[in-house]
Amino acid sequence: MPGITVQLPEELERIIRAYPSDKRYILAMMQDLQKQCNYLPREALEEIARHVEIPFSKVYALATFYKAFSLVPRGKYHIKVCDGTACHIKSSAVLIDQIFNAIAIRPGETSPDGMFSLETVNCIGACAIAPVMVINEKVYSKVSSAGILDVINGIRGDINDNAKSS
Ligand code: FES
Q: Which atom of ligand 1 is the closest one to the Cα of 124?
């Protein structure tokens, strides 16, 4: 709604204010915010724009340019399926379908429980081990459609074990 400003949580404001009021630090601020929130909330981008005194549109353009940033909340387990040429030839589309069958999310979506999100990426430079998938920082090579289910079921097992022990 026009004229209404949303109060930024104190911890996010602290992340931004930890940097000098200089546009050279915008990406560093965004990286810290992405790490903290798993995405870049709009109000945080607005605060960055105020802090470094540049138009919001420029901050927004940076946030949307880099694939490392997301404007919507990502899941605790962020799945990236490479859909570059080598991975595509090795059936990356089948992996994406298999993920949909297992978790019911398409690229760009997050599961309702907030556990999984999916993104397709261009070549990550590991074509020799195509098709490649990355979950958080872990790389999975030569992924088969059966293998992807094992990985997802393994993560679900870990989630359930953690829930029981807490
Ligand atoms: S095309 Fe997937 S790693 Fe190169």
A: 3
109 CA from centroid of ligand 1 (Å):
22
16 CA to centre of ligand 1 in angstroms: 35
> What's the distance, CA 139 to chain centroid?
15
Between strands 77-82 and 116-121, the pairing is parallel
Q: Which of 82, 120, 134 to mutate to test the pocket of ligand 1 (most atoms within 8 A of CB)?
A: 82
The whole-model pTM stands at: 0.76
Paired tokens of 74: 């990502």
For the chain, list the domains and their CATH numbers: 10-65 (no CATH), 77-165 (3.40.30.10)
Q: How far apart are CA 148 and CA 88, in angstroms?
A: 16
Report pLDDT for 139. Answer: 96
pLDDT at residue 7 in the model? 67
In 47-166, DSSP assigns E strands to: 77-82, 116-121, 133-135, 138-140
Q: Which residues of the chain have pLDDT under 70?
A: 1-7, 166
